[in-house]
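User: Second chain of the day. Same drill as before.
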Amino acid sequence: MHRDLIGAALTSATSTASEENNKTPFMPGSNIVVCIEFTGTANMTAKIEGSVDDSTWTDLFAPGAVVFAANEHTEVTSATVVCPKYIRGKVTAHSTGTVKFYKMNAL
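Assistant: Same format as last time:
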């Protein structure tokens, strides 16, 4: 399975820079899986968004709030989604912790 980081790790309520999906195995219209990785003492809401024009964004994967008190590491993975032309990770609420966003080719 090919796994690529989407942007940089985030530690505040912000977005990663958008990335254009234009290389195999991440071509628009292909099936992919996306993953959000939380590290540390996490208290945040994060999601992965897609866009056809790098302007209007819709949710690809929005698992909701994640809260844990001890130093932990956890990942949440989506079902198969259709790869958009542009992709980004976004944190909409943040108290503590670090988050990374990944795209993976679907098997």
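Strands lie at 3-5, 19-20, 31-51, 58-67, 72-77, 81-82, 86-105.

User: Great, on to the next one.
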